[in-house]
């Protein structure tokens, strides 16, 4: 979808909603309709979420605008994430709903700002942003973690991602997933999630292990060993229970799994 | 319990608390004691929880009052839910505590307002309410889901309920439960939970499957297939591990399960 | 670590941060640098978190100061918890970060205040504090539960602890853990967690059962029976899968477990 | 003007403004357009002004509604005041502007609520309302003072009215006017302003003296003696400087005065 | 009145009000009843008034407590001011009303805190306090001005006091009074108001001139020359119009004046 | 003073204050030090003052920035006003204090934004801004009034300016001044204040009359007839009492006047 087409779709959707629902009209005008670019909308809306007595909404808005201007990958990722939610979540019928109302989506975009601050060496401010994300969205992504684009973080409640975790592009992750470490040694100690992986609700993936490209992790699984590409794992602890039926389980969002081998 | 008896009990309890704890006296007076009906208390207290810079507490209070007046089933359900918490949660010794302080209860009642809005076709406002529920309570119930009365939603953190899910009357649900979909097709795709079911903490139930009347789903289970009535299922993935010992496990709140067949 | 050494380390760390990050300078000065004791910092910062239209930040600050003065065990526990986070969480490189930014840590300390109120017989105020903890941190610890010192509550999202639960000293608990009851009878009905235990992410421990000293509960486990000291349990339901490799798994934070016996 | 005609005019004006100025659309919808009666608009808007951490906007709104229902003279007075502003203030081109934006008008209507509370014997609440009026509008009208209808309080800044003052119908009062007492004895000690009087900016009228029907008090005058009907007084101290040219100087708003007799 | 007697009277009055008016009960408990000393009440209530997004209420409360402890004259002055209002203002029937609800009184006490900061060399913080006083109370007293005790500042709206002004003990000042400078030279350039003076509403006193002990300045006067002790001045510009009938016009509050000599 | 020199002076002053007063450090950083231009500082600080539940601070900030960019005369006027305060007010020892802390100055600059909105035809928004100015600063300048640059509005409390008033450059105006209309006819009906005029505290100037270049209006005067250039008027009503001693009384700020001719 072209950059302009996405922005125009969002504006059209929001214009219709503003006309139908006067109680939200000024919120929608203030947040979306009066802006010239999607970047401005993102800076405005995320700053609404992160504002607190410790950090003024205007300062946050300018900080986010600065991040979006300095690192174009952030907006590319946000655009890809909007399209991922629209495409993969059947409860999402348009492009503006995740932007305005889905807290998994919003938490992920706030992380992207904290991650940019971390990369600039502003660790204390990044930790403050993370603290706000954890309070507002119940999501805890360490600002040093690396996360690609085209991510669907569905609901997101309880999502925990460690400092050295990596999530590649086009991954779908349901609620209550942990990408955690193991042991008290520092260094590289968190999972690496490769492209196209689907991680079911409540799954815990622990340690510096790889979940291979196109793999599927069943809901409620506890993964303690590397997962090969294009397989399904399930169970506590997780075992391979089948070959993954399609190249990108993240796209298919099929959470059914075969029975584990008894 | 008669309608009046419940309201009088709540008033009595709150009067005693207001006399004992002056720091909460005005809160209790403002929220409970000055009102003439339980409906007014509900409208006032839920609007306190949902208010935000986007939506004024007074507008929300009037909206909730409008919903309660238009659809009497909402207040019937709220009354039944209060009695369910009081009866089934041994940590709950009175009727006013869930109303005032239990976020699982409050999140469920806020959903009932969002659901009424959804049924009126006010989808954007319903999504806004759901967004607030997700931020304040860490609960995500799609406003189109259908939920009966006499529900105990204990704690509620992480509760996720999909668009086409159904929960019948007299169900008890612990924290971190998912009633999710599977696949990216729209249409009827979420679980149907029949009367009297008990769902343990952390259970994930996925797909358009039925959990039969009086069944029990063990904590941490991942349910991917229909569950017959009056059985206990447990495990990842869940299997039948026994017959359910009583007609309404939701009433008994006995989370013990037999060992799965090895 | 001596009492003074901890306070001096925190001041030093925060002074450096305030100099580097002017956006946080007044927050850090107001919250930490202008105070003479760590007790004052705790009273100030926790009151920032718990404040709401129902309860003014100044009243909460004075209430917390009163609790800290009346029961010295609270500050001893808070100091031990800070050192526990610093020592066991490899993502935590200093002493001030958990104090300022980690919501698991903050939720636990707010519980300590609510627990003191409960012990004074101020149950309604304790429930109000618990309600705020549940909204701000998505943590639900019943104020009557008893929790020792040297606790690492990592992230904490979804943590649920019942009324008669006990957690002894030097325990580490990851996110989404439940220490729950079973059945609808009141009385002693929740788990007893002995010293040095490590509880992995998502574990559910249900009923009046003991998890013995130095035991390890694997991530995602559902524990329905007592766990002997110095063993590892895992699975749904949990079984003994090995002897615990060291005396204090809480210190080691090693979440790897052996395969369960098939 | 009929009761309905005023309300319809206000709605029409506000509808046009909401369409032209999206930044104010939700404010206007929330405050005016969604309501069924002018009474509801008054209760909503005045409660917006008086709300503070001490007194919730919803409680104030219900209190104001209660006052308006109990004493119909209040709304009659408010309607007459709106028409007075519209008719006498050439800068006011419609009916909705004083209601929405003129602080002199709003302060006077808030006084009417405080006065009703005073008459119910709720003196502390009336004093709280007066305290808020003084902070928000810089207006101090003792809640026991008696004020008629058809009053234009233009700007209102610094307006001070004592406990036993009386203002009859159809009076116009500019900013910085004092109707004060003299001496430290209690009892009837403040001015009585008869119908149709015009009081210019900065005038001070002190003591239990009468300003007769249709009189005019020049700007900056200090009035220490009774003023006969239908004369103009001016100066420090004020003297009669002429006959009042028309029956109702309050209607004419002509602040010109003859030279005092030297 | 003894120190204890005043505090006990205030507590008694407030206890009665809290029992009668439940809407204010928690405000009164929080602000007055839970405190052990009048100093604590002052620190709490003034910090409620001065709090803003720039300066947290808790920090202000501690700053005010610090000022009251460091300079006992401040509390002596506040106590004397309460008694002055009670004694001289016939609309004030008790001791708690000025403390809780009179903005002239509150503005004066906030100035005393700003003045203490100024004397400590903390000029920027003193200017911030003055800025808040000007916004909340519409009062502008330069923090370097010197003001004695037993002052009645009635209403206070528009009160302006310059940097080098002095007000001695037992002075009564009505609303809209200016003690201003003249010319653009710095140095001592503002009025000196001696003991027992009464200044009527709207009076402007300009320049480094003395208003002698026991003098009375009529309402609306413009004073440009020194005023001898025990005379009454009035007019624009002010002239001596009589001998002052009693030793302390501030106590008598008699605003009547003789006619100026024509 | 060159544009850059003023901005550099302000930054230097504020940097010193931020180093000395940590309680204000983040406020000063947020409001001044992090910005690149004085325009940004103005947009940020005025939006702090005007923000309310009706209008978000970020929207106001962007609106103010838009106004400053569209009409360069606004910033020229603000710069000239800062220099006027610094030059004419002996209590003002630097350039940053009026900008940060003087409400007369701030109210005037907020009017300039409302005036720009009025000139764009956005009358409702201009009235909303004026309503906020009146509540925050107790100043009421009709947004259609025309005001030049180099204005000292000292304190400003009670300042009232009508719709068709004109204030030319280099005028000084003390508190409680009215530039009002007379009569109820619309059309040009307010005073015209020519260059260099000084208007003393409490003066009321009424009607479409001219106060000539370099004239001085004494404190407390009531001006009902045109004032020739370079004279001093005083009294109620005002008469010519002398020739003005210097070309620009606004610069000299000498409020002394000759005695009126008896």
Automatic annotation (TrEMBL), chains A, B, C, D, E, F:
A Pfam family matched in the record: SATase_N
Reaction catalysed by this enzyme: L-serine + acetyl-CoA = O-acetyl-L-serine + CoA
InterPro entries: Hexapep, Hexapep_transf_CS, LbH_SAT, Ser_AcTrfase_N, Ser_AcTrfase_N_sf, Ser_O-AcTrfase, Serine_acetyltransferase, Trimer_LpxA-like_sf
EC number: 2.3.1.30
Any one annotated GO CC term: cytoplasm
Domain Serine acetyltransferase N-terminal stretches: 6-110
Keyword Transferase: yes
Pathway: Amino-acid biosynthesis; L-cysteine biosynthesis; L-cysteine from L-serine: step 1/2
Coiled coil: none
GO molecular function: serine O-acetyltransferase activity
GO annotation, biological process: cysteine biosynthetic process from serine
UniProt keyword list: Acyltransferase, Amino-acid biosynthesis, Repeat, Transferase
Protein family (similarity comment): Belongs to the transferase hexapeptide repeat family.
PANTHER family: SERINE ACETYLTRANSFERASE
Protein name stated in the entry: Serine acetyltransferase
The organism of origin for this protein: Leeia aquatica
Gene: cysE
């Amino acid at each position: 979808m072209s950059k302009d087409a996405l922005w125009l779709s969002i504006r059209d959707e929001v214009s219709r909603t503003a006309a139908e629902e006067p109680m939200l009209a000024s919120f929608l005008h203030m947040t979306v309709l009066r802006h010239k670019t999607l970047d401005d909308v993102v800076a405005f809306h995320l700053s609404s979420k992160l504002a607190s007595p410790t950090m003024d909404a205007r300062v946050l808005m300018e900080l986010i605008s600065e991040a979006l201007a300095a690192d174009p990958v952030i907006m590319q990722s946000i655009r890809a994430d909007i399209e991922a939610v629209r495409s993969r979540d059947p409860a999402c019928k348009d492009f503006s709903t995740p932007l305005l109302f889905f807290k998994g989506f919003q938490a992920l975009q706030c992380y992207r700002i904290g991650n940019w601050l971390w990369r600039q060496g502003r660790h204390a401010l990044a930790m403050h942003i993370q603290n706000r994300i954890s309070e507002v969205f119940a999501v805890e992504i360490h600002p040093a973690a690396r996360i690609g684009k085209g991510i669907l973080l569905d609901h997101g409640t309880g999502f925990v991602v460690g400092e050295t975790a990596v999530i590649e592009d086009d991954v779908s992750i349901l609620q209550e997933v942990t990408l955690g470490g193991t042991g008290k040694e520092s260094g590289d100690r968190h999972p690496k999630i490769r492209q196209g992986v689907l991680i079911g609700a409540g799954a815990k993936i622990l340690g510096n292990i790889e979940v291979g490209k196109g793999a599927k992790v069943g809901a409620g699984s506890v993964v303690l060993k590397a997962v090969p590409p294009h397989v399904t794992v399930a169970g506590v602890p997780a075992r391979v229970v089948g070959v993954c039926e399609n190249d990108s389980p993240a796209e298919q969002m099929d959470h059914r799994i075969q029975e584990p081998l008894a």
